[in-house]
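Troubleshooting entry. The earlier prediction with magnesium ion gave an output that would not parse, so I re-checked the input for stray whitespace and re-submitted. Clean input:
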Amino acid sequence: MGRKYRVGVIYGDGIGPEIVGVTLDVLEGLGFNAEFIEVKAGYDYYRRSGKVIEDDGINILRNVDAILKGPITTPLNVPSFRSVNVMLRRELDLYANVRPFKSFKRVSLRDFNIVLIRENTEDLYVGVETLVSGVAVALKVISERACRRIVRYAFNYALKHGFKRVTVVHKSNILRVTDGLFRDIFFEESRNYQVEVNEMIVDTTAYNLVRNPEVFGVIVTENLYGDILADLLAGLVGSLGLCGSAEVGDTVALFEPVHGSAPDIAGKGIANPISQLISAKLMLEYLAERFSDEVLTRIANALELGIKSVVEEGKVLTPDLGGSSTTKEVALEVLRRSSTYLGTHARAYQ
Ligand code: NAI
Ligand code: MG
């Protein structure tokens, strides 16, 4: 019997509870041995309680092995409610936002395998803004320390996962000091790694990602550019409902979809659960590496194969991909396929 993991779970808002719920079922179905510890947070919770996260929430999250999170609404017209996502990233120091975008046959228009690594703690997201005499100013913060740890993370990631090239994306032709620092530290650190490097201005990157995504491997960039390019990449993959992410710090990591709470389809049972399932797969890989747990590696691989076969076969899909299946039907089909791939390993924990 392997280790019993402690996983913090935030169900989130909108479609969050639907896709997180079925993801926990899939994880349990595959024999992932864990205690799921719910932490209440988000906009719905705020409306009920006046708090963005339960009192001891951050403490609980600091002390679990990993966190699985659904999307959380950040309403545009409620100034007293600040983004829980940004708060969690800052409080837990989840400095590396890792977003793998891998094309699916039949669903994506092109063939590519890109990992976007986004600095997750500063840039314009420090949220320091002021309005004086009709002039609004926002502070863009780029520190040497944050640059260094994110570019190192990107180089190590590329080496570990067999990527040949790391591209730094910036706008230092205009933002010479802030983006200039990010760029300089990237090239300075690159000397310590045996990996091909290049640079690209962010607007050119948007164009090239659409025109020839196959030339990219790992991309490392600042917070805002990463946010925007991630949705562009999700469009290239074929749906936001197919993209998950890892937010990694030195002591804990959080796993969540790239997309938001999708209020337009919430409560209808038709949200695509694949984004949350991919996030769960990334969590299994993280735990497998951190605790040298080969059983988890096998479960993660089986889950990845299950997801790939369901999406590429195209018979059981949610409406965002042109199908007519429900969230539950897709999750169940992924579980069925993944269990087949897992074979006898499905019982490894029992
Ligand atoms: P969104 O990502 O929630 O939705 C954009 C479009 O994609 C919608 O048409 C939605 O139906 C569709 N979509 C997203 N996920 C899907 C899924 N799993 N299956 C099928 N279709 C899916 O973006 P939007 O509407 O701009 O944001 C809604 C809320 O989410 C906002 O309050 C925003 O602040 C928040 N948000 C939260 C994030 C997080 O918790 N990490 C990330 C991004 C946005
Ligand atoms: Mg975003």
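This one parsed fine. The radius of gyration is 20 Å.
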